[in-house]
Specification:
CATH architecture of the largest domain in chain A: Orthogonal Bundle
Oligomer: homodimer
CATH topology of the largest domain in chain A: Hypothetical protein af1432
Number of domains of chain A: 2
Order of helices and strands of chain A: HHEEEHEHEEHHHHHHHHHHH
Number of helices of chain A: 15
Structural class of chain A: alpha+beta
Helix content of chain A: 40-55%
CATH class of the largest domain in chain A: Mainly Alpha
Shape of chain A: elongated
Strand content of chain A: 5-15%
Radius of gyration of chain A: 33 Å
Strand order of the largest sheet of chain A: 3-2-1-6-5-4
């Protein structure tokens, strides 16, 4: 900066710059930049063009007065195009006398452009992201001070744009990855269900039952999704159990039982290190534990068993009892209810059984 | 801002503020802030304390002169503690006459603190992230202008800190999720291998072979990892194929063949929507295609089959031929080589076979 700038202008720059830096939403940021341009150099209108490097074009949707229209300009063409190509500002005192000026925007909006100050959006590292232009300064032409102010402002805007773009891209990638992961897990669960159960969607159904019970037990709302996922994935480790054991109609031999009982450990291993599944993983690991300590793989008892797994145990047994199996017909609700009461305190956490009993039979009919 | 500030100071503020906004690495940012503090108010030293809300403490590792030591101060205690608690700056003209000043830092460093200007790091939304303090102004006490300058600087620093923290956290979460996903996929592959193959680690071995061949074919380096992953996951869809079909020693019936041949489609579905596996997924889908169009599921031919899948086909057959199977012994390298040559142009892409032939037998001994 070589020319003097008024203190007021510098303060505006600091204030506006801070607002830009704090804005991570791209659309709101572009809007802030547009409004900043007119404020910093006291102009009537502003526009912003972003560089599309792949196509060698500038584009915008946010020129004031041209809302909703996308304009594309080849880099090098016109005033904005020249600024993007050279990286140097242009200060035009009479637009209609400048051969580079295109009247088409004015023609379609009825606006009359007189003066233009156009500067590059350049990052600290010297990358050009686009250009901003201020139109029609309120009093006379744009000054040398305006040039410096708008250059400094454009520098702040470029950093903010770069940050917001990076942040938005990373956020999008992260959300997509989470969705993909869920897709893969869902597909695994569906494949497992198809392999093991005559009645499909066992895992989906048990997950819904578990969630319903969890709400009646009073589990905090922020844990609901993880408990649902844990219930959904409970048998994921069965990928490693052969059909001959998994689908055997009669009782398993002691050797077969050993193989069968590896599945909670294997499932736990498969989901290890996944932060957003840390609670779900505990349910997978503990879904075969029993309240009185006679379950597996760790023979946990009582409160040692994660609450989600204790709730799951009730939901899983309930679903099993109320559906046909190769070796027996489905039980009635009344019979299942009697069994639940009988096993409260031994197989099941009394709290989870109580939650089950508090839900009327009609409601279960919707879920089972 | 109510007091006059010199243009030079305001310009420094704009310049330093922009450097802060551009820095996304947390450690480098903290260092920039420390250096900014001394520069903006012409002080000898600076320190920065971050607020640990959970513990109600301020902490730092980066007070100048105390490198490597972590200091913790309860919010409310001492000068920094008071500024954090009230959100209002303190300007101390004689540290040793102020009862809130703690001499312990001076005692351990041999430094002599005279003047202190301490201001809160407050975001635009009014959140206090910590405090910064400037020690020992070069000429006389800190002025009202210094107070305003340091407050404005702290505002810029707070926004930059908030951005860098958010960005770093998101980046870490994303990296962890990618690793977790890979862990899950690896566990699935290992479980599948354990189920199907007498010789374990078939998928791992074929993935290494495919990668080796891909390098000889001249696949671009940036595609190597995806091709490796595709080869690793090629049979992931077999989760949905029952053992009775998957492990049947003799030939399959037409009905069984239909089930068996669903596995490339199923695998493709399981990995759908995963951006970083988009090329891998194509290999999973096409790994049973043959060069002459007689494969499945889509009967693709020639260049219609993704290159990675054409390379994989050679690696997979090679691995199968050179290892024992329940129904036959492993073939010698020479026999496998003859078979490869025979099937070049029908089952296999001649380019992939050529790559195989160009690798000396001794090298294969390491891989098979």
């Amino acid at each position: 900066m070589t020319v003097g700038m008024a203190q007021d202008s510098l303060r505006t720059l600091i204030e506006v710059g801070q607002a830009l830096a704090a804005e991570r939403d791209l659309d709101r940021l572009l809007d802030l930049i547009l409004r900043g341009v007119t404020r910093v150099v006291q102009a009537d209108r502003s526009s912003l063009f972003l560089l599309d490097e792949a196509r060698g074009e500038l584009w915008t949707k946010i020129a004031q007065g041209l809302e909703g229209q996308e304009i594309r300009i080849p880099v090098g063409a016109g005033i904005a195009g020249e600024v993007a190509a050279t990286g140097r500002l242009l200060n035009i005192a009479e637009a209609y006398k400048d051969s580079r000026f295109s009247r088409s925007a004015d023609q379609s909006t009825g606006y009359r452009t007189r003066t233009i100050l156009c500067v590059p959006l350049q990052t600290a590292a010297g990358r050009t992201l686009g250009v901003v232009q201020a139109l029609n300064k309120f009093d006379g032409p744009f000054t040398r001070e305006d040039e410096e102010l708008l250059l400094a402002f454009a520098g702040q805007a470029a950093v903010a744009l770069e940050n917001a773009t990076l942040f938005t891209n990373l956020e999008t990638a992260h959300r997509e990855l989470q969705e993909s992961y869920q897709t893969t897990l869902d597909a695994m669960v569906a494949a497992l269900d198809a392999r093991e159960h005559e009645t499909q969607n066992h895992s989906q159904r048990v997950a819904r039952l578990t969630l319903h019970l969890a709400r009646h037990v009073g589990v905090p709302v922020e844990h609901e999704m993880e408990i649902f996922r844990g219930a959904l994935l409970h048998d994921v480790g069965k990928i490693g159990v052969p059909d001959a054991i998994l689908l055997k109609p009669g009782p398993l031999t002691p050797e077969e039982l050993v193989v069968m009982r590896t599945h909670p450990d294997l499932g736990y291993q498969m989901l290890k290190g996944i932060k957003f599944l840390s609670m779900a993983r505990e349910i997978v690991w503990s879904h075969q534990e029993k309240y009185d300590g006679t379950g597996y793989p760790r023979s946990l008892r009582g409160e040692e068993i994660p609450l989600g797994a204790r709730i799951f145990a009730v939901a899983d047994t309930l679903d099993a009892m109320t559906h046909d199996r190769p070796y027996r017909k489905a039980l009635s609700y009344a019979a299942a209810r009697a069994e639940m009461i009988k096993c409260s305190g031994t197989q099941f956490d009394p709290k989870a059984v109580e939650a089950f009993l508090s839900i009327p039979e009609e409601e279960w009919a919707q879920l089972l």
